[in-house]
Amino acid sequence: MDPETHELDHDAAEAQRPIDAEGGLLHALLLSGEVCTLESASAINFENLADLPLPAWIHLDRTKEPAQRWLRERSGLDPLVCEALLEENTRPRASERRSGLLAIFRGVNLNPGAEPDELISIRVWVDADRIITLRQHHFHVVSELRRSIRAGQFATTPMGVLVALATGLSADLGPVVENLQMLIDDSEDCLSEEQPHLVSVRDLAIVRRQAITLRRYLAPQRDTLMHLLSSPAIEGRYRAELIECADRTSRFVEDLEEVRDRAAVSQEELRAQRELRSARVMYMLTLVAAVFLPLTFVTGLLGINVGGIPGDSDPLAFWIVTILLIGVGVCIVVLFKRLRWL
Question: H-helix or E-strand containing 248?
Answer without folding.
Answer: helix 237-302
